Amino acid sequence: ENVFQGRSVLAEKDFSAAELEYLIDFGLHLKTLKKMGIQHHYLEGKNIALLFEKSSTRTRSAFTTAAIDLGAHPEYLGQNDIQLGKKETTSDTAKVLGSMFDGIEFRGFKQSDAEILARDSGVPVWNGLTDEWHPTQMLADFMTVKENFGHLKGLTLTFMGDGRNNVANSLLVTGAILGVNIHIVAPKELFPTQETQDLAKKFATESGAKLLITDDLDEGMKGSNIVYTDVWVSMGESNWEQRVNLLKPYQVNMEALKKTGTPDDQLIFMHCLPAFHNTDTKYGEDVKEKYGITEMEVTDEVFNSKYARQFEEAENRMHSIKAMMAATLGNLFIPRV
Ligand code: CP
Ligand code: NVA
């Protein structure tokens, strides 16, 4: 028996707390094997398609190295390489890819495209980020939290920034499923949609997670163990000026971290990356000229502080994606969890 076999990973809501925790723990186990140099060829002979409509450093690298470590062959299919959504329907692409590949990673704009791929390819589809959700990021993130604190339940994670982007949505719902308290601190205009809030609330009643959505920094930061942020302008967004003005007060800086009131050894900072934390990026330079700021969602000081865990988090993308692919495609024996 294997409760994961053949399943797609499109959104967190499709998985129970026990299932998510199983994948997180499996990721930690595979990380140990990797560090010890012990082979784990669970996907020997499999072919994996990596479909990207948007650019990526971490997700692409993680899927590629994870597939190779598992003994599978990854094939990158970029936005300009294939016909997806241009000369043929997503459904037709799904049928073709499903006849050749054993699993498909999809990063794109529309969640509905991920759903069509899963419905019509007949093979597991893993969502590598859409405008709505970023589930593989969540496996790495809660794996990183567990590594740092030894447990998940009862911790408080505060996301400050664009409260209705894919990462904020995913943190809210995943925390609610896992019993991790989630605070979203954002300007009212960027609160999660009512639909996302309702979904999270439903899970929170079952898990006991406390959810707080507020535009008040003092209230939102108080008692946090994990302070998390993400870019103010996600891929596919363009309204720079409006977002910068709305989000300026919601920068993660040392002052904001102090508002948590949490002892140093119980507090970490996380960021899914890429981050705009100084003017080294071309991006930052434009922002400096136009809006007079040199740092955006997080200051260089916090990014380089003892609280920072963003690079462990990035590494964990590979270990956790490996766990997810092996569990859904590896014919493993996984007793019902
Ligand atoms: N965190 C993340 O998904 O990074 P990439 O966009 O580089 O894949
Ligand atoms: N919210 C960001 C996440 C990048 C990993 C985006 O969608 O661009």
Descriptive notes:
It is a single chain. By secondary structure, the protein is α/β, with parallel strands linked by helices. Helices cover 44% and strands 12% of the residues. It contains 13 helices and nine strands. It has helices at 17-36, 58-69, 90-100, 111-121, 135-149, 166-178, 194-207, 217-221, 240-247, 254-258, 282-291, 300-303, 310-329, and strands at residues 47-52, 73-78, 103-107, 125-127, 156-160, 181-185, 211-214, 226-229, 268-271. The strands form two sheets. The chain has a five-stranded parallel sheet. Strand 1, helix 2 and strand 2 (73-78) form a beta-alpha-beta unit. It is globular and about 50 Å long. The N and C termini lie close together (11 Å). The model has no long low-confidence stretch (mean pLDDT 95). It binds phosphoric acid mono(formamide)ester and norvaline.
